[in-house]
Amino acid sequence: NAGVTQTPKFQVLKTGQSMTLQCAQDMNHNSMYWYRQDPGMGLRLIYYSASEGTTDKGEVPNGYNVSRLNKREFSLRLESAAPSQTSVYFCASRLQGGNQPQHFGDGTRLSIL
Amino acid sequence: GDSVTQMEGPVTLSEEAFLTINCTYTATGYPSLFWYVQYPGEGLQLLLKATKADDKGSNKGFEATYRKETTSFHLEKGSVQVSDSAVYFCALSDDNTDKLIFGTGTRLQVFP
């Protein structure tokens, strides 16, 4: 059971470079999410997609773009990376419905120099 | 809006001690409630959930009861192990927006 797969696991970028974080789920889930996790700040929602073809801003969307490529895949793009975007990024997915939990990937650890 | 409040950490315990991590919530509707665990270097894993008032979720010796009257969902374990050292997140579902609302997490450190 692969669940939620994120690539890459680690990445180092220079300020101003661009990069796309990939996420794929094989559980036929409708909803997908991108979070960032910083020390002492818990999880903060960047963007989410309630279904294929729709995306919505979360709590901290500035500096990011997303694409819901199909039902399985939800990518996060940094167009011009900044040191403030150094973080651990998590993708999650879930079936729609209030009693459904989110399932998380193992994260991408991103450092921007 | 909906919110989740967790006790500040770290919580430091000796092996076999009793654990309680407090979680309270604010919600306008009838949310489902979740506890997640994050081990070092890993993503969040669902630990347990409860979907309505008075439900008790349980898994791996951990328990939490959905208390509507006190708007709480405290996590308990009777005897912790060193391997339970992790960060624990309380969360609630927000049906209106298809999102989960997370607490800030509580770090548990268990020493032999």
Radius of gyration of chain A: 13 Å
The averaged pLDDT of chain A comes out at 93
Count of extended strands of chain A? 11
Query: Which spans of chain A of ≥5 residues are poorly predicted at pLDDT below 50?
Result: none
Structural account:
The complex is a heterodimer of chains A (113) and B (112). Chain A is mainly β and 113 residues long. Chain A has strands spanning 4-7, 10-13, 19-25, 31-37, 43-49, 56-57, 64-68, 74-78, 87-94, 103-104, 108-112. In chain A, strands 2, 4, 5, 6, 9, 10 and 11 form a seven-stranded mixed β-sheet that branches. The termini of chain A are far apart. With 112 residues, chain B is mainly beta. In chain B, strands 2, 5, 6, 10, 11 and 12 form a six-stranded mixed β-sheet that branches. A four-stranded antiparallel β-sheet of chain B has the order 3-9-8-7, with no helix packed on it. In chain B, strands 1-4 form a two-stranded antiparallel ribbon. In chain B, strand 10 (86-94) and strand 11 (99-102) form a beta hairpin. The relative contact order of chain B is 0.33. The model of chain B has no long low-confidence stretch (mean pLDDT 93). The interface between A and B is medium-sized, with 24 and 21 residues.
Give a short overview.
Helices cover 0% and strands 50% of the residues of chain A. Chain A is mainly beta and 113 residues long. Chain A starts with a strand and ends with a strand.
From the structure above, extract its key features:
heterodimer; A: 113 residues; mainly beta; four-stranded antiparallel beta sheet; 11 strands; B: 112 residues; six-stranded mixed beta sheet; 12 strands; globular
Give me the secondary-structure topology.
The complex is a heterodimer of chains A (113) and B (112).
Chain A: E1 4-7, E2 10-13, E3 19-25, E4 31-37, E5 43-49, E6 56-57, E7 64-68, E8 74-78, E9 87-94, E10 103-104, E11 108-112
Parallel strand pairs in A: 2-11
Antiparallel strand pairs in A: 1-3, 3-8, 4-5, 4-9, 5-6, 7-8, 9-10, 9-11
Chain B: E1 3-6, E2 11-14, E3 19-21, E4 23-26, E5 33-38, E6 44-50, E7 56-59, E8 62-65, E9 75-77, E10 86-94, E11 99-102, E12 106-111
Parallel strand pairs in B: 2-12
Antiparallel strand pairs in B: 1-4, 3-9, 5-6, 5-10, 7-8, 8-9, 10-11, 10-12
